[in-house]
Amino acid sequence: LLAEALTDAAIREGLPRHAAQLLVDQTLKGTGALLAETALSPIKLRAQVTSPGGTTAAAVHVLEESGFRAAIEDAVRAAAERSREMGEAAGNASGVAGE
Predict the structure, then answer these.
(1) pTM of the predicted model, to two decimals?
(2) How far apart are CA 11 and CA 25, in angstroms?
(3) Alpha-carbon distance 74 to 46, whole Å?
(4) Better pLDDT: 72 or 93
(5) How far apart are CA 7 and CA 18, in angstroms?
């Protein structure tokens, strides 16, 4: 969903679809690589790449004001709850008692 939204937004800002998809792909790959290859926490990495008054700062501000963090937390919570429900159902279906 994140990659879709980023791609759609880039297209609305005037990028051709192939360029938007490439930009999103490289952005997400680069972020993942930086997180994997450095000892920096996500918070420290974001602070390191966010210039005051820059494009990332503007985007982060809008995301925070729009409730992005809460939406992600709600989504993770919903997935975790569903995972527990599915695990309980699988345990009951296999005849395992007390789980």
Answers:
(1) 0.77
(2) 14
(3) 22
(4) 72
(5) 9
